[in-house]
Amino acid sequence: MSYALTLNTKRATSGSSTDTYARAIKSIPMLTVEEERKLAERLHQNDDFEAARILVISHLRFVMHIAYSYRGYGLSQSDLIQEGNIGLMKAVKRFDPSVGVRLVSFAVHWIRAEIHEYILRNWRIVKVATTKSQRKLFFNLRSAKKRLGWLTQAEVENVAEDLGVTAKDVREMEIRLNSYDVAFDGPSDTDEETEMMVPANYLEDDRYNPATIIEQNEWKMYGQGQLYNALEKLDTRSQDILQKRWLGEEKTTLQELANQYKVSAERIRQIESNAMKKLKKNMALLTA
Predict the structure, then answer these.
(1) C-alpha distances in angstroms, 1 versus 28, 58, 187?
(2) Residue 176 class from Cβ within 10 Å (0-12 exposed, 13-18 middle, 19+ buried)?
(3) Mean pLDDT rounded to a whole number for the chain
(4) Mapping DSSP to helix (H, G, I), strand (E, B) and coil, where does residue 95 land?
(5) pLDDT of 4-16, one tens digit each?
(6) pLDDT tens across 138-172, in order?
């Protein structure tokens, strides 16, 4: 079996046409079950780089097929393919032929995961999905909608039940999907009326406001003063334990304090817990 066509594939990926790349990878022969198993064993047992290369290039057409299913996100098809190829390489590296499944079945998860991550990073300037529920909704909500327009409450509840998320998550993702990125400063050629809608003109930044800085510093100093006043009302041992456990640069362990006071670590934990309760009570009395 010849794999000389890999050079043509490399040239194809450097161009702007995915059609040329598609023709190149379709000319690469596919592996039989036995060929795939032998190559995977060479890679798994001997770290054979040539075996890994053949496994990867023989599955490039499968990556392209998956990447085509994500054309509706408005991103470069060649970029989606390249991200899918990264997922394929990760799958080949982790593939264990002794499990008894084909590489294509094992790799699909890795390919989709890389493509999903790329879409989430690049679909908008601000990442629209960070939690597991949001990611699930991002890739399924549009297909779940039966018509244009906003979902009704019944549709929201049906989608939430089908995907195993809350109705609130569905509503929030629907809003995110129907929103657009807005430049903070806005374009330079905006008229006076449009300029007032630019976020830079109505969003305030109080981080460097002198009054805010002074207020924050004074409140911090007040809180520290109250803390130490409340701490002084505790017995000497409790003060020392809290100081070493919470107020020092390095946190002392329970066992180290137990060795110092010749008691068990559990006893130190009890003293610490009681001291914290007294400290909170003293601070509440001081601020009342």
Answers:
(1) 10, 11, 57
(2) middle
(3) 84
(4) coil
(5) 444 344 444 444 5
(6) 888 877 765 667 777 888 888 888 888 888 888 88
Q: Are 28 and 58 in contact (CB under 8 A)?
A: yes
- What is the percent of the chain where pLDDT is above 90? 38
Residue found by looking up tokens 């003109």 in the block: 201
Contact call for residues 226 and 287 (beta carbons, < 8 A): yes
Cα–Cα distance for residue pair 43/40, rounded to 1 Å: 5
Q: Which residues does 71 contact at the CB level (< 8 Å), separation at least 6? A: 77, 80
Describe the crossing of helices 60-68 and 77-94 by its angle, rounded to 10 degrees.
130
CB-based burial label for 159 (10 Å; 0-12, 13-18, 19+): buried
Of the candidates 260, 259, 241, the one whose C-alpha atom is nearest the C-alpha of residue 251 is 241
Helices (H), the chain: 6-14, 18-26, 33-46, 49-57, 60-68, 77-94, 103-122, 132-144, 153-163, 167-177, 192-195, 210-232, 236-242, 254-261, 265-287
